[in-house]
Amino acid sequence: MPAAFPRKTWRLRNLRGVSLGLLASLVLLTAAAWALTLYQTFSMARPMGIAVRGGLDGMEGMAGMAMAGIAADGWSLAGAATFLTVWTVMMAAMMLPAAAPMIFMFAAAQTRREQQVAVPTWIFVAGYLLVWAAGGLVVYVLVQLGSDFATSLDPPQRSNWAPLALGATLGVAGLYQFTTFKHVCLSHCRSPLAFVAQHWRDGRVGALKMGLRHGLYCFGCCWALFAVLVAAGVMSVAWMLLLTLVVFVEKLMQAGQRFEGALGIVLVALGIVVSFGAIEMPG
C-alpha cells in the first residue's frame, strides 16, 4: 500500500497539470478563432452570403459572408478552400466552449489509463472539428446553389423569396428541437462520462474515431440551428454570438432540457412572423 500512495499522488498532480494546460490551450485556441472570425467579418467590405452573380447585390437578409468573392464569383476550388478554412475557424470559435467538458473528460480518461495525454486529446479535438469542416463543404454547396437561384430571379422576386427562405429555415429549426434524433444526439453531448465509457477506443486512431463520433453527435444536435446562421448570413456577428450562447446553454446548463423546448417554440413563431415580412431579422 505505501508504494501505491506516491503513484496515486502523481496521477492527481498529472491530471491537475493536464487540466490547467488544456484549459489554457482551449482558451487561447478559442480566442484566436474568434479574433480571426471577427477580423474576416469586419475587414472585408464585400458581403458574401447568397449573392447575385456578377454584382454586389445579394438577397436581403441572406447575405453576410464577409469574404471577397466566394458566392458572387461562382464555383471554384480556391473559393471552396477559402470558405472551408473560414468556416472551420468559425466553428472552432463557436463550438469549443460547449465541447470543453467532453474534451476534459477525454483527457482525464487518458490520464487514468496512464497513456500519453496531450497528443491523443488534440487528435480527439481535430476529429471533432473535422466533422464541422465537412459540414462546411455542404454549406458551400448550398450557398452556391442559393446564389444560382438568386441570380435567376429579378429584384422584386428576390425581395419576396428572402423572408420566405429565412422563415422556413427558422421553422424547420424550431420543429427539429422536438424530434427524437435531436434528443438522442443532445443526450450524448450532455453526458461526457457516459460517452467516454460507451465509446472509448485506445490509441491515437481511437482518439480520432472518438472525436469524429462526438462531432457527428454534435452536428446532429446543432445542424438546424446553424442552418439559420447560413440563411441569415454566414458571418453575421449577431447570429454567431446568439447561437454560441444558445448551444452553450442547451448543452451545459441545468435548465437545458426546458430551454430546448422553449427554443423550438420561439423559432417556429419567429419563422412564421419573418415569412410574412412582419419583421426583418438582423444580418
UniProtKB/TrEMBL annotation:
Family annotation (InterPro entries): PpoB2-like (IPR018688)
Keywords: Membrane, Transmembrane, Transmembrane helix
Transmembrane residue ranges: 84-109, 121-141, 161-178, 216-249, 261-279
Organism ancestry: Bacteria, Pseudomonadati, Pseudomonadota, Alphaproteobacteria, Hyphomicrobiales
UniProt source species: Mesorhizobium opportunistum
Name of the featured protein: DUF2182 domain-containing protein
Pfam families tied to this protein: PpoB2
